Amino acid sequence: MMIGELPLLHSINRSGVYTAAHISLTAMTTRKGSADQHSPTALIEAQLSEPDEPVLGLYLHVAYHCFMATFAEVGRGEITPNLIGVLALLATYPGMSQADMARLIGLERATVGIQVARAISSGFVRRDGTHGKGRRYALYLTPRGKEMLAKLRKRIPRHERTAGMRLSLPERRQLRTLLDKLVYGQEPV
Does the predicted model carry a pTM greater than 0.70? Predict the structure, then answer.
């Protein structure tokens, strides 16, 4: 979203593709001392908490939608953010199982299974049976998956610079460190 553009309301349709529609938010004066006293997010926050108690979930939710407003430039209808994670993990850990992937990222196996099934049906991933391990399967990137990952390595940095243009590189690194601490309870090693 560029400065001066209307924010977008996002949703995911049944096929996992993001859609967006412009919404109009009326700027209203909010909390004293707020970085942006006309921010709709600050207005909502003022109704939900005490003046010096930020509602982080609200800001994370809004930030996520701002980044997703321009995701179409990255995915180009070929891939969703969740599938990007599957490809990146398999590039790092070829042959990992779906259960190992779920444990690594902290999601339910069924949730990861849905994404793996999409990656397979999209031709990005193949599943091979592993001998002696019952129903366990090893997952690998296909040539198409490797090609898509190579494209993403070019597209994602451009998207990140554009979507995060209001933050300097040191600020983006600091935000990443704080988010790691929030999500994982520690700063990255």
Answer: no
